[in-house]
Amino acid sequence: MWVLASKTLSSVTFPFLYNPIPNRHSSSSKLKLNSSVKFEYETERGLDFETGESFFRHESATGRDLGVLAAALYKKSKARLRILDGLCGCGIRSLRYLVEAEADFVLANDANDDCRDVICRNLSKVPRGSDDEPREFFDLIDIDSFGSDSSFLRPAINALRFDGLLYLTSTDGYSSGGHRPHHSLAAYGAYVRPLPYSNEIGLRMLIGGAVREASVLGLRVVPLFSYYSYHGPVFRVMLRVNRGKLSDNSHYSFVSYCHQCGNSQTFSWDELGQISCSCGNSKSIVISGPLWTGPLHDASYLTEMLNLAKEWGWASGDTETALEKLLKQMVDESDPRLPFGYIKLDEVASRAKVNSPPLRTMMDAIQKEGYAVSRSHIISNAIKTNCPMAECIRIAKELQPRAYAEVL
Q1: Same-domain check for residues 205 and 349
Q2: Rounded CA gap, 181 and 119, in Å?
Q3: Max alpha carbon distance in the chain (Å)?
Q4: Statement to judge: residues 228 and 337 lie in one domain
Q5: Predicted local confidence at residue 30, as pLDDT
Q6: Residue 309's domain spans which residues?
Q7: DSSP code string of 366-377
Q8: How many distinct structural domains can be found in the chain?
């Protein structure tokens, strides 16, 4: 597995073993370096580190928070944690996995040899253990890649222990938006057309690519959480990998959107010749896929993450933190009654020819009609609901006088 990791992910490897550090959430001391050399430090969750010339974004801290929480839960349940941090940049994820998740071993890799010194300085905060080459499978593999390079998927799955975690990344907003369908087909095996919920499609496209690669190896993947961030954009998914083949009722299928009525549907492979829309205008339908059309999150797993975040002080009972709000929204999105995609209230208002109603008012009205509904963590002015578009339009029209009064 060492050869696999070093050959496919990097030409530079930095293995470190974790030794416990007291007070995991306190700020770590700065490195004692030659006083004639000046180093600027960043701080994340109390840990000081350098970025050097590596690519680094403060906005990606939430994705790192989620990865650390998942890693810590794995360590708690399995009593072990071996991590491969592929494309590690300056090494901040590796440092956080070692200190906060108490990883037993982290292999930090980056193909850019210029990052060697800054990675070594950042990880020197942690006492270094044996330099023996890793000969075991990894429990968690974190690949924070750029664009839509999916060539690492199969090697990463091969290097992962059964029941292990695979944390994947895509930053290809053009493909998820349907602007490069042949590119998405080559990278993820999905021909993607423009859809109004393109940012969710980006997550489903990435999961679908992993589903396809895992199935070739006789394995199956299940999403534990899926996270979208507007900067980049960045699509991150945490998957659990186990033995098992795709079932006949798997969630690896096709999605349709009707431009005339605004409804979306899923179609299995054996339904491809029967695609139609209830509005009767089949010419206005666009099809994308195959994609992952099942749940984006596991509610019970997210609840464990939220509880751990509270235990660590990352979620406050007095003032709701951004991470706490995100995890709660993801739990709400996990309602099994909710279909794929989201509905922008601006689209509902445009079709209804009314002003857009307040989001909370619209959600309350939909719930009173007996439908399931939640906010979308992906976009602020959008909802996930099993309420058909025609019903959403009717409700928006009925709410118009009330919505106007609330504005006044």
Answers
A1: no
A2: 37
A3: 75
A4: no
A5: 35
A6: 299-399
A7: HHHTT--EEE-S
A8: 2
In degrees rounded to 5, what are phi and psi of residue 390? -60, -40
Using the 8-state DSSP alphabet, how is residue 179 labeled? Answer: S
Alpha-carbon gap, residue 119 to 109, rounded angstroms = 9
CA nearest neighbour of 208 among 163, 153, 263, 158: 153
Give yes or no: residues 66 and 212 share one domain. yes
Distance of CA 122 to the CA centre of its chain: 26
DSSP per residue over 328-394, as a string?
A: HHHHHHT-TT--SS-EEHHHHHHHHTSPPPPHHHHHHHHHHTT--EEE-SS-TTEEEESS-HHHHHH
Q: Quick one: CA dihedral 242, 246, 250, 251, positive or negative? A: positive
Dist. CA 295–CA 336, nearest whole Å: 7
| Residue-wise burial string across 70-96, b where 16 or more C-beta atoms lie within 10 A, e elsewhere | bbbbbbeeeeebbbbbbbbbbbbbbbb
CA angle 223, 228, 234 (to 5 degrees): 110
CATH number at residue 85: 3.40.50.150
CATH of the domain at 337: 3.30.56.70
In a domain, 2, yes or no: no
Domain end call among 292, 325, 355: 292
Structure tokens at 202: 């980006």
The pLDDT value given to residue 4: 28
How confident is the chain (408 residues) per 10-residue block, as mean pLDDT?
A: 29 37 35 42 91 86 97 97 94 96 94 89 82 76 88 94 97 93 95 96 97 94 96 95 81 95 93 88 91 97 97 84 96 97 96 95 97 97 97 95 53
In a domain, 206, yes or no: yes
List Cα–Cα distances, 140 to 79, 86, 312, 347, 371, in angstroms: 13, 11, 21, 40, 38
pTM equals 0.88
Residue linked to tokens 């990344």: 169
